[in-house]
Amino acid sequence: MSEQPLHLRSFPKAILHIDGDAFFASCEQARNPKLKGRPVITGKERGIVASMSYEAKALGITRAMRLRDAQALCPALVVLPSDYETYSILSKRMFNIVRRYTPDVEEYSIDECFADITGLQRPLHMPYEDIAEKIKHELDIELGFTFSIGLAPSKVLAKLGSKWKKPSGLTSIPGRHIHHYLKEFSVEKVWGIGAQTTAYLNKHGIKTALEYAQKKEEWIREYLTKPHIEIWQELNGYSVIPLDTAVKTSYQSIQKIKTFSPASNNKSFVFAQLSKNIENACMKARRYKLGAEGAIVFLRTQEFKDRGVEIKFSRQTNFSHDIIGLTKSAFEDIFNPNILYRSTGVVLFKLKEIDDSQMDLFGEAIRAERMTKVYESIDAIRDKYGKHTLFLGSSFAANKFAQHLGERGDLPERRGFLLKGETTRKRLGIPVFLGQIS
Amino acid sequence: MGKTYFDKIRDFYNKRRRMPSYSEIMMLVGFKSKNAVYRLVEKLVSEGLVSKDRQGRLIPSKRFGEIPMIGEIEAGWPSPAEEELLDTMTLDEFLIQNKEATYMITVKGDSMKDAGILPNDIVLVERKNEAKDGEIVIAEVDGNWTMKYFRKRGKEIYLEAANSKFKKIFPKEDLKIAAVVKAVIRKYS
Q1: Taking every annotated instance into account, which residue ranges of this chain make up the domain UmuC (chain A) (predicted)?
Q2: Which of A327, A347, B24, B80 could form a disulfide with A296 if both were Cys (CB 3.0 to 4.6 A apart)?
Q3: Percentage of chain A modeled with pLDDT above 70
Q4: A106 flagged as catalytic
């Protein structure tokens, strides 16, 4: 039975999943030849591994590992602070290169995207595999590091394809050959299938992706819910999950989490860190004209344990001082002076477009209008002169010093120098080659 | 009428490389009062031809220098229509061909000085792994970047500096070209 094709047509749809190999670490290696062939990780400022080069991976270093554990595994490890500015520029470049071929690109995350190239063989005079190959070639050359691509009739299959051979793989899964690939993947490797569903499927004797795909439709509909029915269809070569090609203009939630070092049990300092995060989250909410109806604030201990509280607001808001005021007592509840904390965070949720039209009895609307003007000015000043020029008193202790004292406070190399005409606020949006130049 | 006023201001600017003061404009255009100059300036500002700094002194706006491209203006002032700017390019477009493949390097050392590339210049480079004879390339040599002329004589490939003090570099294995130099930027202030 397992030799029977699941789908008879090769590419009723042609979907690509494109994945940057060890993206952040590769961005670093590509701009500095000294780092090539060496174990490199990023995430110095967070104290944990954010991304590791294949050389580091080979030594057993994994994502989210603590720095000192990683360094114990490999004393020669190159540990770099994250340079999100450069990574973001290269991420946008990646999407733009793919858009040379098709406008249907879904920016799935900073280092991954989906692209729909259905129907392009004729205008481009080449089969889908060659189009994928060409895109890969341009990405590899122009960004200076490698990408892995999966080509398949659906998103779920394309995502498996890009995992098949990594790094620098190009895997084409035409409908007729889906079953050859699925039998090699355990079901939990399938995009969208979590630990719960895996355990449930295992109970029914489903271990591989192929066993899942071969289940009868009646069984799937009887025992599973919509998202998993869609995954089943996609595994069978039917594209049912559309690409989300809209550029993000809104958010359902906004989160700001910042680690600081050394860890602290100073109550006013830790609260200032939280306050700073709330201010930054609110600023982002105001930029997108969104207001939150609630927030979760949390503290993370040095032992990586989180404690958080959810707060509901009586009315939608994006005013920092409102939210900070409401958080105060929640903070008192979760803060324990006998514990050292390493980071604080806030998630604003139930974000909706700010609606000014609501009338009320107690003059709230008038107050809100006034405050909106105040915050418009605050945001304009912060935009022009930097986020750290104007902040609430409650954030003072967090703005007084750099986020990290000691070597974790090291800035990315690109932040360490200014080209003539650049300011600490604004740099040229073009990545710079680093290292020795002769 | 208006055309001549503006021309006079522009001629002044072209000759002295600065904008005239109000009293100089008064002399230039033959007005009798600064109030008249003030009204002229307000008009130029509203046309987008000049703007004012914080002290109220004139500064040329973006359109100030581009006006000659429009040619003869028959009647009155041209309105600052977007179409007039369609055929201009930004400095970005002028310097950068393939945006996604463009990177910068700050020059160290004087090995390319005879090519007019000096220490602390910024070069704009385009990532490529092949080059044509005579192009200036960024290559990877012993874990460092090096910027040199790329030379190809038949099957022989080597790198050459633009400075007689440096020897030619003949790669032992295959030469790893990372990028080709497209432009040099030198900022003075």
Answers
A1: 15-194
A2: A347
A3: 97
A4: no
Q: How many CB pairs under 8 A join A and B?
A: 77
B86 part of a folded domain: no
Q: Distance from B29 to chain A by nearest Cα, in Å?
A: 37
Q: 80-119 in A: which are within 8 Å (CB) of B? A: 93, 96-97
- Asked if the model's pLDDT at residue A159 lies above 90, the reply is yes
**Distance between A88 CA and the closest CA of chain B, angstroms:** 13
Domains of chain A: 15-171 (3.30.70.270), 177-235 (1.10.150.20), 254-400 (3.30.1490.100)
pLDDT in tens, B156-185: 999 999 999 999 999 888 889 999 999 999
Cβ of A268: how many Cβ atoms within 10 Å?
13
State yes or no: is B79 an active-site residue.
Answer: no
**Model pTM score:** 0.74
Q: Is residue B57 part of a domain?
A: yes
The H or E element that residue B62 is part of is helix B62-66
Q: What are phi and psi of B71, to 5 degrees?
A: 90, -160
| Set of chain A residues whose Cβ sits within 8 Å of the Cβ of B100 | 93, 96-97, 142-143
Measured between CA atoms, the residue of chain B closest to residue A428 is B104
Contact list, B147 vs chain A (CB under 8 Å): 437-438
> Any chain B CB within 8 A of the CB of A420?
yes
Mean pLDDT of the region B45-62 = 82
Interval B5-19: pLDDT, tens: 888 888 888 888 888
* Full residue range of the structural domain in which residue B137 is found: 99-185
Alpha-carbon distances, residue A318 vs A51, A285, A311, A352 (angstroms):
33, 6, 14, 10
Do both B61 and B134 map to the same domain?
no
The pair of three-digit structure tokens given for residue A206, joined into one six-digit string: 């489903």
- Nearest chain B residue (CA) to A95: B100
Provide the CB-side half-sphere exposure for A368 (13 A, CA): 16
Contact of A31 with chain B, judged by CB distance below 8 Å, is answered with yes
Number of domains in chain B: 2
For residue B178, list chain A residues with Cβ-Cβ distance below 8 A: 33, 144, 433
Specify the 3-state DSSP secondary structure of A412. Answer: coil
Looking at beta carbons, which residues of chain B come within 8 Å of A431? 103-104
Who contacts B7 (Cβ-Cβ below 8 Å, separation ≥6)? none
| Structure token digits, residue B148 | 């040199």
CB contact under 8 A, A438 and B108: yes
**Contact between chains at A142 and B122 (C-beta distance less than 8 A):** no
Beta bridge partners of B35: none
Residues in chain A, how many?
Answer: 438
- Whether A366 has a pLDDT exceeding 90, the answer reads no
Query: Would you state the pLDDT for residue A99?
Result: 95
Bridge partners for B50 per DSSP: B60
Cβ-contact A315, A361 below 8 angstroms: no
Residue A246 has pLDDT above 90, yes or no: no
Q: Which residue of A has its CA nearest to B130?
A: A141
pLDDT above 70 for A360: no
What DSSP assignment string belongs to A121-166?
HHHHTS-HHHHHHHHHHHHHHHHSS-EEEEEESSHHHHHHHHHHST
Instruction: Give ipTM to 2 decimals.
Output: 0.76
Q: Please count the CA atoms within 13 angstroms of the CA of A143 that sit on its side-chain side.
A: 32
